[in-house]
Design a protein that fits this description.
- With 66 residues, this protein is of the alpha+beta class.
- The protein has a single domain (8-61), classed as Factor Xa Inhibitor (Irregular).
- 36% of the residues lie in helices and 15% in strands.
- It has helices at 8-13, 38-45, 52-61; strands at residues 14-16, 22-25, 47-49.
- The chain has a 3-stranded antiparallel sheet.
- The longest helix is centred in the last third of the chain and has 10 residues, at 52-61.
Length: 66
């Protein structure tokens, strides 16, 4: 059976931690920041864990990282 290809777009968007958690960046941090509060912008800067429902899909896209 041939090797599976990693989805390159997914590779750029998700990070796998040592304990196999999947992290992603939050949305709404790229532009129109003047109307958002400093607290909100700060919180959007943190990475968040992918929901369990989406984790299965990410696992398929990144076959060699798990």
């Amino acid at each position: 059976m041939p090797k599976l290809k990693t989805k390159r777009a997914a590779r750029k968007r998700f990070k796998i931690t040592a304990s196999k958690k999947v992290l992603h960046k939050k949305a709404n941090k790229s532009h129109i920041l003047t109307k958002k509060s400093a607290k909100r912008i700060r919180q959007l800067g943190r990475q968040a864990e992918v929901s369990p429902a989406d984790r299965r899909l990410v696992k398929k896209m990144l076959p060699y990282d798990f």
